[in-house]
Amino acid sequence: MARLNSSKKRRRAAGAIPTDSFSDIAFLLIIYFLVATTLMKLHSIKADLPSGEKAEQAQSEKTPIVNLRSGQIFFNDKPVELEMLEERLAALDLAAQDPEKRVVMLETAKGTPYDLYFQALAAISGSGGVVALVEEN
Amino acid sequence: MGDIAFLLIIFFLVCSEVSKDASDIEVTLPVSERVEKMKAAAAARVAIDQGGQIYFEGSQVENPKDVEWGVRALLANTVVDDQRHVQFRCDAAVTKEIFEPVLKAIAEGGGIIEAVGNKKEP
Predict the structure, then answer these.
(1) What is the CATH number of the domain that holds A89?
(2) How far, in Å, CA of B57 to CA of B21, rounded?
(3) Which of A1, A109, A120, B37 has a CA positioned 20 to 30 A from the CA of residue A43?
(4) A121 and B6: CB-CB below 8 Å?
């Protein structure tokens, strides 16, 4: 009986999964994650641009328009500073409007840098507006 | 030791996102006070570097039309708006002639643009 028990134990020991290398595998995985991950969260502004027919429908004479030309911002054809643009857009209370009335047209002249465009986009999106890009004819 | 290692792996698995944004692309991001931390995971990543080269998912593409088709293909099976976010990184000095067609291409492809910028400290 005693012999039978000891042979059972020996068989179990022989069939056991070797766990000695688990820590090595674990450290390799850690190194992979350390190299291939980005813990830093990016900052961004969200802009859902209407496209195609939707964009054309969104444009009407009453729609507020922001122009970017010669490195300057114009709101409804009047030159404004960025702070002033934000104030004007805030006064429109776009976030509380119906979706079709939240549209702000954004027109840019040739050579406009992305930096200025980004500021305007941030101001419009931040005030709850939906940006409609104006197509050049 | 092995236990600690596995705890670290679980930590990285839970709170990390595998880097796909090709951070070797040279981009000087614009700065704004209005930027917020990106909440939704990006379905696609588009970048324009200092030289005006367009990248889609880290690979250089020829023109904005390629971006539109790429975004369209990636968003083909999306059901909710949260799956339509497209990360857009563009160099601050790039001009309208280059970036605007790309923005339009993303919009035409059905993406919601997440324009990446740096937070301006007040």
Answers:
(1) 3.30.420
(2) 7
(3) A109
(4) no
Q: Is residue B48's pLDDT more than 90?
A: yes
Whole-angstrom distance, CA of residue A71 vs CA of residue A69? 5
ipTM: 0.80
User: Where in the sequence is the domain holding A116, given as residue range(s)?
Assistant: 53-133
Residues A90 and A125 in one domain: yes
Same domain, A61 and A107: yes
Element containing residue A66 per DSSP (H, E): strand A65-69
Between chains, do A51 and B19 touch, taking CB under 8 Å as contact? no
pLDDT for residue B16 is more than 80:
no
Q: Considering its fold, how many domains does chain A have in total?
A: 2
Give the relative orientation of helices A82-92 and A114-126 as an angle to the nearest 10 degrees: 30
Query: Given phi > 0 = left and psi -120 to 50 = alpha, else beta, which region is A9?
Result: alpha
Among the partner-chain residues B18, B117, B118, the one whose CB lies closest to the CB of A37 is B18
